[in-house]
Each structure stands twice: as structure tokens, then as C-alpha cells.
């Protein structure tokens, strides 16, 4: 083992068919099923024109400003994979740009998540490839390493293990632990159905929220008559 400079094999991955079930579900609904305690941070924003992202994680940990291991990850990623890069959140140098995004498209990847900067933002903004990043800069990357592939990483407190499910939409990025994906799919579908009923009630002019008054009473809130 050479910690800091190693490429490991991914031992398991969420099946692509299961991952794609989440493409019809808002990230917020999944997040609610995780007690609203997990997130990739507010700086990870959608940089593409396309739809939602969902796919098994191929993780990369790299020195800030260096993309050597990201280039290697592109060469070994499987169709549908989401390459998730922990670049330390440093925004000084871009870790990816137009050429790497084009390669990801040609390889049929599911998306790119960069905890760091990208460049060629105008081109990427028109791309169908899901791309999330923390910032934009014209300054390019170095290619010297070190770095690691298929190791556990963390982005703003959100831990991503190789093969976990990574999803994203306009509200941000979320990682679902491998063993919890089926349960979270069910809870997210229930949440989505419940919200659809609320929307239907609102459209019908029904605005009752008895739980609000019940909560205020439980808290001992004084309400002047």
C-alpha cells in the first residue's frame, strides 16, 4: 500500500439500472429521507444544461490543482459511472475543462463531480454531460500527482465510498450509501407521492395545516386573541 499514490479496484457498485431509477426523483426528496443531514455543500453547483445525474461513484482524491489521477480515472471508468473528485475545494486551478468533458461524453459516463474548479465554463454550460463543480477559473491544472483512485473521500462532510450512488440536480449533489439505496428509493418515492397530494390540495384551494397549530401549542407559544 502506498497511501497518497495508489489506484485501487472498486469492489462493488450500485447497479446502473437501479441508479437510473433516481433520475425521476428530486434530490431534495431523497435528502429528506436521510434526515436532511447529508449534503455535498452549497458550493457544488450544476454547470451543465442537462438533466439530473445518477450513477455509481468512481472516487478520486487529488492534490489541489492537479488532475493526473482524474485523467487516469477517465480511462478506467465504466459507462454510467460518476467520477467524484475531492480536490480539497481549492478554486485556484481548474481540474477539468472542455476536452475532459468531451471524453466523458464519448465514454458514456454518468457525470462528473469536482470539489474544485473547472474551466471552459461556457462550453460545459451547453453540454448534456452532468457536471457539478465548486467554481470556475481560467488557470489550468498541473499533472504531477500525487493522488488516489477508488478510496473513500469526503466533500464538505459528505463521505463517498467507491460504488456508492451519487445523484445531483439544481439543488446540489447527494451521496447514498451502497447498502441504503433500495430503502432510500422507496422512501423518496413515498415523499414524492406525498408532495404530489399536497400540490393537488393546494390547487383545489385546501390550505389546512393543523400540525402547525399543534406544534405551536406543544412549544407553549403565546398567541394573542
Describe it for me?
The protein is an alpha/beta fold and 225 residues long. 29% of the residues lie in helices and 25% in strands. The protein has one domain (5-187): Glucose Oxidase, domain 1 (3-Layer(bba) Sandwich). It has seven helices and twelve strands. The strands form two sheets. Strands 1, 2, 3, 4, 5, 6, 7, 8, 11 and 12 form a ten-stranded mixed beta sheet that branches. The chain has a two-stranded antiparallel sheet with strand order 9-10.
CATH fold assignment: Glucose Oxidase, domain 1
Name given to the CATH homologous superfamily: Ribonuclease E inhibitor RraA/RraA-like
Overall body shape: elongated
Q: What structural category arises from helix and sheet content?
A: alpha/beta
Radius of gyration: 20 Å
CATH class: Alpha Beta
Give the H and E element order.
EHHEEHEEHEHEEEEEEHH
Straight-line N-to-C gap: 70 Å
Unreliable parts: none
